[in-house]
Design brief:
2 copies of one chain form a homodimer.
Chain A (H helix, E strand, L loop, with lengths): L7 H10 L5 E6 L2 E6 H17 L7 E5 L4 H12 L3 E4 L6 H11 L1 E6 L4 H7 L8 E4 L13 E3 H6 L15 E7 L7 E6 H11 L12 E4 L11 H8 L2 E4 L6 H11 L3 E5 H13 L9 E5 L5 H11 L6 E3 L6 E4 L4 H5 L2 H8 L4 E2 L4 E5 L14 E6 L17 E2 L2 E10 L5 E6 L3 E4 L2 E4 H9 L4 E11 L3 E10 L5 H9 L10 E4 L13 H7 L3 H4 L9
Parallel strand pairs in A: 1-11, 3-4, 3-5, 4-8, 5-6, 6-7, 10-11, 10-12, 12-13, 25-26
Antiparallel strand pairs in A: 1-2, 8-9, 14-15, 15-16, 17-18, 18-20, 19-20, 20-21, 22-23, 24-25
Helix pairs in contact in A: 1-2, 1-8, 2-3, 4-5, 7-8, 9-10
């Protein structure tokens, strides 16, 4: 067979040539922007030419601090297709973490939304590798202390798009994304052209979310989160009409876009699904063309699944994945036999995390890494292997702890039933998922224990109506503390949304047999808000 | 990303572990055989153990002369997963060609249906590499002069299936298939594990035939024809219920299987679609569960497409491909815009050969190989490139003529419209497709011209109700000839179905500007049976 590499430029080739007339639509303030895949392809090449003119060469990293827009989408292809590496930076990171990931990735050029300039100006002096800032949007470049600074549209206007994409090894780095760690700085995952192409094929399969020509997809999942779950790449390959929600979107913006553009498939974090439900409760909408709302990032409650199905006839599948797996590892395709068995059987399946995608090998492992049976009862950690799973964290000594015998340790714990459905029951890693973003409980505990009045601290996840999970801090103290005082102590080191809402003063932290904090006990004891009432630290002044 | 190879054993892993309860059903004389993918996986490993015991090692070729059965399906996985190469031999080849392909491939073991033994016995003395014959079926091994000979089921019964598939480079040869050549012996195409896995993903995509868990597929396309178009491999990956039509199937057998097993998707050559229509005209059937009849190998007439749609609500898409492309290169997915425009627009699309699959690059080329525009008017040859397209014919000096600048020359000629749909208008190669099988016009011409009475000969395709195309021979003679005499002259060198039904005696063969036979003129002149009547060679005695 021909030795043809799997390259992202081939996904773009199909979008441009086979589906050149299909549209990419972006909600922008005041208006919707729209153009075709044919126009998109020319602009992606112009971007590559402009970046080359700024000195970007093969292997160089180009960072983005950007919303889900057509310009960000252009960088998804323009950067890797020229042989450079797209580093999508999470806008919600704490400012110091943004500086860390830019330096760690060694970004040479940053593509930045105008609204992100103030944050970037604060850390610019600490950025050691950035040679140029390019401001997105189509207005004039705002007044800024960043230098040298360029306007995105001006740069593109100076190029002709007459460029043949180079060919190179399919294992060449294409993109990178950082994920929160249990302790310390974020950890980087580097995607290859090969992994992106294989992941795109998986997303377009029957038995997956099924990116396809006849659908209109709204990727609400941020493009700075694990390739926006792969939707943008798969959409170009399949000629799928894309609707991008633009800057600072809120639930009503998503619903506007769904109504207006006839979105058939929306893809979002579970917490966003909750916000959309709330917005729909406040104001009914015409969702008649919406068929599927894929909720991921964590397990959607069955009540939410039912709500969308019963009110709007919208199917709510889920997927399980992670930045390290491109991200999709499993998807809740309901087998025909189960569907034929009726609604109850379907419901029992929909709350599970799904079947392994092609190419993804799953091992349910005991503590030594040895395989456990798929009997729906044996509880173990899920290990993953496959060409779309990372082999290492980028230049990071913490890699060793996350791999065993060539398998990636996901840190998620659960069972696999005889039908092959994974179900998560716990999380081995001390992370809390709030509003689709990770919070490290260990980092919060370390910071709390540096407070002079705190003897010991444990932070666990508690259920939250809006954010699905929120951190709850339990502290043992040697002298009186207040909520205000503890929050102030943490405030300088964490983004505000990462701070616990509640601080409980407890006489002791329960321990496991080996002397670790027994978080299972804490989670169970304080699951209900009423159980926490009496122990709350006073507000303070 | 992990350096994990794309291996056929992973397709099997998914079938066995994620869809272990799904069924594989085979029509056998007198009864249907059925078992699950879990059982299938064990038997594929037993087959590998048995072949290893017969001395088959990595890289060795194992030939099959077999129908579409569960045993043939076991070889589709057992042979390549152990690192050996599956050579599926076309039962319809002329006996001498069968000997040629076995010797050329260097098959070490042959898996043979009982009904193929007589043909094989005739050529056994000419087979230089075969070390063992294994007789398929579950009866006792018939009396045969072949040696050493083993019974398939006896061999499997002696093994325990306790085998871990080896891992190796994804470019390792997995399978091979020979295709008819314009002149001379068949040409071999070698598939790799990588190409088979990528092709399987393509078959399971939205916008393709869509192999999926909830469907029941009947691959009528023989398993000795280009991987049965990839259905068997994709089915294991997707956990698709498979119904295999077994030995010597006729149209009513397919229809029995469709009715009885609730087949949702059938896959066949256009000529078989015609036979199924005729059978349905004779006897109505319940086809209510049949959704799609994929007809390929050549273009299905619009009348046939309409017939299945109007009578049974069955959709009839087509694909274009060839042994050299695994085989699928394009598929007639109808774009949403076209579907929305109504039946007439859909019909105009359904007669085209479709859109390029992901990973398949198509070039419409002029005679120098330079690209022509996709305007629906410029006529050129279709060139293909991609990881599922062969780079060469196996050990064959004719390779050079079929490739230009790294592109495969398909020999098919036509246009590409601005929507990306290919449409074939002619065939550059002198081949005729009759009942789904190729016939070389050049070979027939050479043989005819060796007849003492024949001065010149040209063979062209004419339309046939049943076989879609049949060869028509036009001869210029120096003395009287008869149809019987000419057929007898050819009979020893061709299979009977390859012989022309009609021989026309013409005063001269029209020529092109460069002095070649102008077959376009002949095809046009003799398209209608009435135009041939007066020129027919007398029957003879």
């Amino acid at each position: 067979m021909m030795d043809r590499p799997l390259l992202i430029s081939q996904l773009l080739w199909r979008g441009e040539h086979v589906f050149g007339e299909k549209e990419i639509v972006t909600r922008l303030p005041g208006a919707y922007h729209r153009y075709t895949y044919a126009e998109f392809g020319v602009r992606a090449r112009r971007l590559a030419q402009a970046l080359a003119r700024l000195g970007v060469g093969p292997g160089d990293r180009v960072g983005t601090l950007a919303w889900n827009t057509h310009q960000h989408y252009e960088s998804y292809f323009g950067v890797p297709c020229m042989g450079a590496v797209l580093h999508t930076i999470n806008l919600r990171l704490f400012t110091e973490q943004i500086a860390y990931v830019i330096n760690h990735a060694g970004d040479s050029v940053l593509l930045v939304e105008p609204d992100q300039l103030p944050a970037l100006e604060k850390i610019a002096k600490d950025l050691h590798t950035v040679r140029a800032y390019v401001v997105l949007g189509d207005g004039p470049v705002p007044e800024t202390s960043l230098a040298p600074v360029f306007g995105y549209e001006e740069l593109l206007a100076a190029e002709d798009g007459d460029l043949a994409w180079p060919e190179f090894d399919e294992n060449t780095a294409a993109a990178m994304c950082y994920t929160s760690a249990t302790t310390g700085d974020p950890k980087g995952v580097v995607y290859s052209h090969r992994s992106v192409v294989l992941h795109s094929l998986n997303l377009a399969l029957h038995g997956s979310i099924g990116v396809r020509e006849e659908a209109t997809f709204l990727p609400i999942s941020p493009m700075f989160h694990a390739n926006s779950w792969g939707i943008p790449h798969a959409a170009a390959m399949q000629g799928t009409t894309l609707v991008l929600p633009g800057p600072h979107p809120v639930a009503d913006d998503y619903l506007d876009a769904i109504e207006r553009e006839g979105v058939t498939h929306a893809v979002a974090a579970v917490s966003v699904g909750v916000l959309m439900r709330d917005a729909l409760e406040r104001r009914n909408r015409d969702l008649s063309r919406l068929e599927v709302l894929w909720l991921g990032g964590q397990a959607p409650p069955l009540g939410l699944i039912h709500w969308f199905r019963d009110r709007y006839g919208v199917e709510v599948p889920q997927g399980w994945g992670m930045t390290e797996a491109s991200p999709l590892a499993t998807f809740t395709a309901v087998k025909k036999r189960i569907r034929d068995a009726g609604q109850e059987a379907v419901d029992r399946t929909l709350v599970k995390q799904g079947l392994p995608m092609p190419g993804i090998e799953v091992r349910l492992a005991d503590e030594s890494g040895a395989p456990l049976p798929w009997d729906g009862e044996s509880v173990g950690e899920f290990l993953l292997r496959g060409p779309t799973v990372t082999a290492a964290y980028h230049d990071d000594p913490r890699t060793a702890a996350s791999f065993v015998d060539g398998w990636f340790r996901t840190g998620d714990v659960g069972v696999i039933d005889p039908d092959g459905y994974l179900q998560l029951t716990d999380r081995a890693k001390d992370l809390i998922k709030s509003g689709g973003e990770w919070i490290s409980s260990v980092e919060l505990e370390n910071a709390l224990m540096s407070h002079p009045a705190v003897v010991e601290a444990a932070v666990v996840a508690v259920t939250d109506e809006r954010w699905l999970e929120r951190p709850l801090a339990c502290v043992v103290v040697r002298e009186p503390v207040t909520t205000t005082g503890l929050r102030a102590h943490l405030a300088g080191r964490f983004a505000s949304w990462q701070l616990p809402d509640e601080f409980l003063i407890v006489p002791e932290i329960p321990k496991t047999g080996v002397g670790k904090s027994d978080k299972k006990v804490l989670r169970a004891r304080f699951a209900e808000p009423a159980s926490r009432q009496a122990l709350r630290a006073p507000d303070g002044s």
